[in-house]
Write a structure and sequence with these properties.
The chain is mainly α. It is 69% helix and 0% strand.
């Protein structure tokens, strides 16, 4: 039952990335965009795997963008890992609770 929660979060994140965080390869991006693009790194990476034209990091950007992108990307990946770990722990507790 808990397995249902993790895929829905990924689907919502991908839809949000499609609607709000499309990266244009020719536009110059600053540090604010680096935060947004870093937070949506994993959904944009999944989109990039299916469509090579989708970017998960801007090509035309400032140094502030790179710093903010790395900070947000690392934080986002840690957040997804923690979420997946706790979801797995809930599932294992749920599955193991029927033993007598």
């Amino acid at each position: 039952m808990v397995f249902m929660f993790l895929p829905w979060r990924l689907i919502v994140a991908i839809v949000a990335a499609v609607l709000f965080v499309n990266i244009n390869g020719t536009e110059l991006y600053g540090w604010q965009a680096g935060l947004a693009h870093g937070l949506f790194f994993l959904p944009n990476l999944v989109r990039h795997l299916f469509d090579g034209d989708v970017l998960f990091k801007a090509t035309n950007c400032t140094t502030g963008y790179h710093v903010a992108w790395w900070i947000a990307t690392v934080g986002s990946c840690i957040g997804w890992l923690v979420d997946a770990t706790f979801s797995f722990m809930k599932v294992s507790a749920f599955v193991g609770s029927d033993k007598e």
